[in-house]
């Protein structure tokens, strides 16, 4: 019986040592935010882009896109060329009541600092088909990639309205 007790105690000691060894391993922790400068830079670029859009200059708007970017506005097919994006924005900006602005509410940057995102709220104003002002408001999500020269460029952008579709009942 004495050997059985010793084996039991030995088993407990081995299990205890194994637990202690596992507990001593450093536990992965979320890295502290070390990109404060990158976050501020990306927020600033997003705000500059908003000002470029409101200036009604399609080429300035499109200059923020990286080559190969995708633009996903509502109610139209996705656009994957700067030329298509510029055509679409030129048509929108030609509207006499056009005004577009947005404000980032959240900005994030990847741990290695080469990808980022902005999300926020936008306000769009146009002149409707019957000459009456039309307003839209909603949210957006933009994915940015840091370029070799250190600048941020859009690689994916989408937005959608907070308002119900025309003719739809609101909640």
Structure description:
There is one protein chain. With 171 residues, this protein is an alpha+beta fold. The chain has one domain: Nuclear Transport Factor 2, Chain: A. It has helices spanning 2-24, 36-54, 58-62, 82-93; strands at 65-72, 99-109, 115-127, 133-146, 152-161. A five-stranded mixed beta sheet has the order 1-5-4-3-2, with helices on one face. The longest helix is centred in the first third of the chain and has 23 residues, at 2-24.
Shape: globular
Could you tell me the CATH topology label: Nuclear Transport Factor 2, Chain: A
How much of the sequence lies in strands comes to 25-35%
Secondary structure category: alpha+beta
> What is the N-to-C succession of helices and strands?
HHHEHEEEE
CATH architecture: Roll
Helix content: 25-40%
Question: Total strand count, please?
Answer: 5
Catalogue the unreliable spans: 15-21, 27-32
- Give the end-to-end Cα distance, rounded to a whole number of Å: 76 Å
What's the number of domains? Answer: 1
Widest beta sheet: strand line-up: 1-5-4-3-2
* Sheet with the most strands, sense and barrel status: 5 strands, mixed
CATH class: Alpha Beta
Query: Radius of gyration over alpha carbons?
Result: 27 Å
Count of helical regions: 4
């Amino acid at each position: 019986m004495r050997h059985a007790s010793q084996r039991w105690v030995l088993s407990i000691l081995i299990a205890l040592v194994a637990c202690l060894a596992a507990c001593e391993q450093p536990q992965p922790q979320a890295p502290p935010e070390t990109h404060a400068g990158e976050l501020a830079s990306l927020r600033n670029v997003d705000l500059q882009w908003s000002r470029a859009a409101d200036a009604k200059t399609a080429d300035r708007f499109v200059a923020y896109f990286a080559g190969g970017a995708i633009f996903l506005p509502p109610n139209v097919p996705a656009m994957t060329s700067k030329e298509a994006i510029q055509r679409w924005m030129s048509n929108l900006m030609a509207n006499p009541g056009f005004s577009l602005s947005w404000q980032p509410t959240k900005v994030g940057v990847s741990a290695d600092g080469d990808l980022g995102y902005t999300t926020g709220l936008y306000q769009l104003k146009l002149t409707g088909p019957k000459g009456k002002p039309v307003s839209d408001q909603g949210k957006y999500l933009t994915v940015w990639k840091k370029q070799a020269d250190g600048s941020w460029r859009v690689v994916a952008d989408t937005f959608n309205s907070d308002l119900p579709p025309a003719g739809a009942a609101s909640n």
